[in-house]
Automatic annotation (TrEMBL):
Keywords: Acyltransferase, Transferase. InterPro entries: LRAT_dom. GO terms for molecular function: acyltransferase activity. This is Lecithin retinol acyltransferase. The keyword Transferase applies. It comes from Medicago truncatula (Barrel medic). It holds the Pfam family LRAT. The gene is 25499780. Coiled coil: none annotated. PANTHER family: OS05G0310600 PROTEIN, OS09G0526800 PROTEIN. Residues 20-166 form the LRAT domain. It comes from the Eukaryota.
Length: 259
């Protein structure tokens, strides 16, 4: 367990683990679920999608050429960004890291970089693998850098938690970090008159950055709800409820349940 991330060796990972690797000289990380058999299920943008951190059409397509080891490496359903890859193609010569769950608030706040851990508790490995394989066949909606990215996919598979507030940031710790840094700088700006020291100003900004990341962690958010993978399409608005289904709750907008 490191201060920045949790690097592991290939022989240490277990089926159901949330793994990730860094891309583009550590500028961002790519996440997936290890399902055993040296295979990873992960979520990436469509080939024609271009984002701030992903500037080539195949930056997260680990198999631009056929994999020489596994014939099914790169399998995905049509119009879906959920992909099955072998571990080597997923890593693309990068190092392997394991995302940590159920960490203490203290440990979470000491992590300098977002997208490495959460205070939320994980579900059993068999449940995690079932979600990943189900989504491989049925998709995970449209890729969105801030609200529905590869880290969001892996975190949903591990926890089954879904963000109800579609206007806010998603589950991704990376997205929270991107938003949290400028927010911390903005909020700390009025304190410049009270703290002329650069060291004091940096300390305040760093503290606000960490707290803004913690406030968006799925383990402490109030706008999350547990959603079964079979009901995910309805809750995300990909489809409408059938006549046999009804969306109910406890009277608030924060607890939709499919029955």
């Amino acid at each position: 367990m490191g201060l920045i991330s949790n690097r592991i060796e290939k022989h240490d990972i277990k089926p159901g683990d949330h793994v990730y690797t860094y891309r583009a000289v550590f500028s961002y990380s790519h996440h997936g679920i290890f399902v055993g058999g040296s295979k990873v299920v992960h979520f990436r943008p469509d080939r024609n999608f271009k984002s701030i951190t992903e500037t080539s059409s195949n930056v997260d397509d680990p198999t631009p050429t056929p994999c020489p080891t596994f014939p099914d490496c790169g399998f995905r359903q049509p119009n879906s960004g959920v992909v099955l890859s072998c571990l080597d193609c997923f890593l693309r010569n990068g190092s392997l890291y394991c995302f940590e769950y159920g960490v203490s608030p203290t440990l979470f706040l000491t992590r300098i970089r977002g997208g490495t851990c959460t205070t939320a508790l994980p579900d059993p490995p068999e449940t995690v693998i079932h979600r990943a394989m189900y989504l491989l066949q049925n998709g995970f909606g449209n890729y969105d850098v801030f609200q529905n990215n590869c880290e969001d996919f892996a975190m949903y598979c591990k926890t089954g938690l879904l963000i109800v507030d579609k206007q806010g940031v998603g589950r991704s710790g990376q997205a929270s970090s991107v938003i949290g840094a400028p927010l911390a700088a903005m909020l700390s700006s009025p304190l410049k008159l009270l703290m002329p020291s650069p060291v004091g100003m940096a300390t305040v900004t760093a503290g606000m950055y960490c707290m803004s990341r913690y406030a968006t962690d799925i383990g402490v958010r109030s706008d999350v709800v547990k959603v079964g993978v079979e009901d995910l399409a309805v809750n995300l608005g990909w489809t409408t409820c059938s006549d046999e289904e009804e969306v109910v709750g406890d009277g608030t907008a924060n607890s939709p349940i499919i029955i």
